[in-house]
Amino acid sequence: MITRFLIQGMDKRGLVFLAVLVALAVLVPLANLLLPPGSILHVPTSAMSLWGKYLCYALLAISLDLVWGYCGILSLGHGAFFALGGYAMGMYLMRQIGSRGTYGNPILPDFMVFLNWSELPWYWYGFSSFPFAVLMVLAVPGLLAFVFGWFAFRSRVTGVYLSIITQALTYALLLAFFRNDMGFGGNNGLTDFKEIVGFNVQAQSTRAALFSMTCVMLIAGFLIARGIVSSKLGKVVIAIRDAESRTRFLGYRVDRFKLFVFTVSACMAGVAGALYVPQVGIINPSEFAPANSIETVIWVAVGGRGTLVGAALGAVVVNYAKTVFTSGFMAPYWLFALGALFVFVTIFMPKGILGTAQDWWARRKAPPEASPAAEPAPAE
Amino acid sequence: MRFVSCLLRMIALATLLALQPGAASAQGSPQAAEEAFTRLGADSFSDTNRAIEILIANAHPQAAVIIEALADGRLLAGGGAVVVKTKDGKLLDAKTGAALASEPPGLSAVRLNNGVRRTIQAALGGLGLLNPDAGKRIAAAEAVFKSRDASLLPVLEGAIAKESDARAKAALRQAQAAILIAKPDAPPFDRIAAVDVLRERGDQDALATLRSLPGDSSAGLREAQGRAVSAIESKLALWRAGQNLWYGLSLGSVLLLAAIGLAITFGVMGVINMAHGEMVMLGAYTTFIVQELIRTRFPGLFDYSLLIAVPLAFLVAGLVGIAIERGVIRFLYGRPLETLLATWGISLILQQAVRTAFGPTNREVGAPNFMSGAFEIGQLAITWNRLWIIVFAGLVFAALLAILKLTPIGLQMRAVTQNRRMASAMGIRTGRVDALTFGLGSGVAGLAGVALSQIDNVSPNLGQSYIIDSFMVVVFGGVGNLWGTLVGAMTLGIANKLLEPYAGAVLGKIALLVFIILFIQKRPRGLFAQKGRAVEA
Question: For residue B200, how many C-alpha atoms fall within 13 Å in the half-sphere facing its CB?
Answer without folding.
Answer: 12
